[in-house]
Amino acid sequence: MKKDPLSKMYQQLNSEERALLFLKYLSEGDQIECERLSDAAPIKEYLSTDLAFRDKLNRLFDMATYWGIEYWRNHYFAATVFSDAGDNRNRWLARIAAHQQALIAVCERHTIPIESVMLISSTDEIGAVYVEEGVEADAEDQRIKEQELEAIAGLEQG
């Protein structure tokens, strides 16, 4: 049986070109071309540190990065969009408090050094936010954030 000419062309692509094309076909829902690109990728053998260690470390970095993005997004909205007093601002402040409490709870539950998460995510110390006296964390938002953080980090959810 004759080999597909596109598959032969895919073998001539370098890894970066193949990955970019794969992403394009993936976004278009073209599973056949994704499979052809995967099949055209050369198989190599590597020596590496323990994969479970690398996976856990990558997931913890992903969690810290996600948390940092959410932290700065929340602070931007609190400082600009909701700078006026009122119900919307108080709801947003409760969301920020929930976000912080979720990180604290997840780090305590899984003995993750919170200082490391703060350093990796380039965020201030916990509590150094626009949360005013009397604003409490929204419990449902906190529960959802805890689940998100644990899922990203590949942790068993508490």
Description:
- With 158 residues, the protein is mainly α.
- It has 2 domains: 5-40, no CATH class; 51-153.
- 67% of the residues lie in helices and 0% in strands.
- The chain contains 7 helices and no strands.
- It has helices spanning 5-10, 15-28, 31-40, 51-81, 87-109, 114-120, 139-153.
- Helix 4 (51-81) packs antiparallel against helix 7.
- The radius of gyration is 22 Å and the shape is elongated.
- The model has no long low-confidence stretch (mean pLDDT 84).
Features:
67% helix; 7 helices; 2 domains; 158 residues; single chain; 0% strand; mainly alpha
In short:
This protein is about 65% helix and about 0% strand. By secondary structure, the protein is an all-alpha fold.
The number of helical runs is: 7
**Helical percentage:** 55-70%
What is the distance, rounded to the nearest whole angstrom, between the alpha carbons of the first and last residues? 54 Å
C-alpha-based Rg, rounded: 22 Å
Estimated structural class: mainly alpha
**Shape assignment:** elongated
Provide the fold topology:
Layout: H1 5-10, H2 15-28, H3 31-40, H4 51-81, H5 87-109, H6 114-120, H7 139-153
